[in-house]
Amino acid sequence: VALAYDHSYSDTADFSPRGGGVKRASDVTAFSGPDWMSRAAQRFVDLIRLPVGWDGHQGHPVSPPIADYAYRFLQKLMLQPGLTLPSITPLAYGGIMLEWHRRGWDVEIEIDAPAQHHVYTYEIASGLEEQFVLGPRLDRLRDIVSKIAD
Amino acid sequence: MPSQNTKVNPIETRSLSPVTDSLGYTRMRRNRRSAGLGDWVGLTFLARRCRMALAKRAGNGNDSSGTMRNRAKMERPKHLPEFDAPPLTEVALSLQFQPIARFGFVDFGPLRERFRPAFERVEYHPPLPPAFETFGLRQGGVAQGLQMINFGMGLTLPRLWLVDKTGNELLQFQVDRFVHNWRKIEVDNVYPRYEQIRGRFETEAQTLMSFLSERELGSLVPNQCEITYVNTIGADGGAGDPTHKVLRAWTTISNSHLGEPEDVAISARFLICNDVGDPIGRVIAQSTPGLNAAGQPVVQLALVGRGPPAAPTLEAALQFMDIAHERVVWAFAELTAEEMHKYWKRRN
Questions:
Q1: Which residues in B lie closer than 8 A to residue A16 (C-beta atoms)?
Q2: Phi, psi at residue A146, to the nearest 5°?
Q3: Is there a contact between B133 and A136 if contact means CB atoms under 8 Å apart?
Q4: C-alpha pair distances (Å), B189 with each of B77, B192, B302
Q5: Interchain contact B225–A (C-beta under 8 A)
Q6: At a CB cut-off of 8 Å and minimum separation 6, what does B276 contact?
Q7: Torsion-angle region of A105 (φ positive above 0: left; ψ -120 to 50: alpha; else: beta)
Q8: pLDDT tens digits, one per residue of B175-233
């Protein structure tokens, strides 16, 4: 697992940053962050290393680009107050599912490619369920998060 | 927390009644509750149908009919601020797309040949991490202790640089990104303007799409696009940090009891919204203190306009870049001090 930070311009300008400048992957050797981050990161690493056929069928390991994206997406979600770390589940085609089953709700977010997510919610008491494709606007997750957060 | 099961269970039959609401979201009501995977498999199937319909509506990323319209020579919008001698040192147009999973080491050579007449020199660099702009949730970042991790384990394909003979023009390719850079190498290099760089980028992106198609490597499905302007701004020979002379919002700080700061790093993000006020992207402004080759203090002001294209097509990506270009040009004019505009020969 390597930390990464970079940009699309080429750093050839007549310019050297002062005070150390921007950290690059090669500068960082140790992981530091909240506990949930290291647990989530380790889980993603484990899922990437799954053997082909891990599910007893033709299941693929989680694709690294999907793990990259899911980890960042999870970071955004975990900034919402009171939200706990979800179950992080592999999907047979190499995707990832984030699942919460708490406070009377089932919430599942399937990530099948970077920036492609699908949300399923189910309220146990009412039996009402909902499914929708989630684009770059994540507003709709605010209500959902408030239902499952502490 | 439930056990982390594998989501592969027998498929159950469910009675689902899909309805579409005013926002186009599909809602379903299930007759009975079950946490079993069969439900999920059924729902996933429906979700895939829904996605296929969306993809069909949005185009498959290879539709060239739209891009034909863009081949007409672009003209610069007259209302945009214009500088005859901008402090630009680099401009990059970047298209990020779903990773081309079938692209391998053996494809780098033929890809290089495709661009070779214009881009002779080759370099290899580590791949850039993907970047995604999302909206509507409380945002964080590295500043709040969050960290980016690259999960690309084991052998990772590099980022290919193809450089022209002057060094001014650069193409970058990696399995999920394609970038065209213009760089100021010599003092007298003149910035060729966005419209010209955009025209080249469009042609090159089409070349890349043809290459991927001919080799049956997959199609280009853009998911983010980005335009970057990097300005390196000196302080007229002064010894101190020039930020308070360069950035409008910082011009009064030297009047405080603190005096002139040793150095200043500033980062700010601004939403780009459409006509009805919905966010569609961001302008990110980053000012970093530094030294030029002569050891004089300079400020590097990087302005990035980034967001998802309205549809996964090259045409939509270029349309977003046009919007982002206007916002970035205005951001430069409005964030920098008017006093500096005289040096940069602002026309309007």
A1: 290-292
A2: -65, -25
A3: yes
A4: 23, 9, 19
A5: no
A6: none
A7: beta
A8: 999 999 999 998 889 999 999 999 999 999 999 999 999 999 999 999 999 999 999 98
| Cα-to-chain-centroid distance, residue B225 | 4
- Find, among B50, A60, B145, B213, the residue nearest to B205 by Cα: B213
Q: Can you read off the two tokens belonging to residue B171?
A: 């193409």
Partners of residue B10 in chain A, C-beta under 8 Å? none
Q: Where are the beta strands (DSSP E) in B206-347?
A: 222-234, 266-273, 279-291, 297-307
pTM as predicted: 0.76
Tell if the CB–CB gap between B176 and A65 is shorter than 8 Å. Answer: yes
CB contact under 8 A, A48 and B151: yes
User: In Å, how far are A122, B177, B187 from B138, measured between CA atoms?
Assistant: 24, 27, 43
| Contacting residues of A for B300, CB less than 8 Å apart | 13, 15, 17
* Helix and strand counts by DSSP (H, E) for chain B: 7, 12
**CA within 13 Å, CB half, A68:** 25
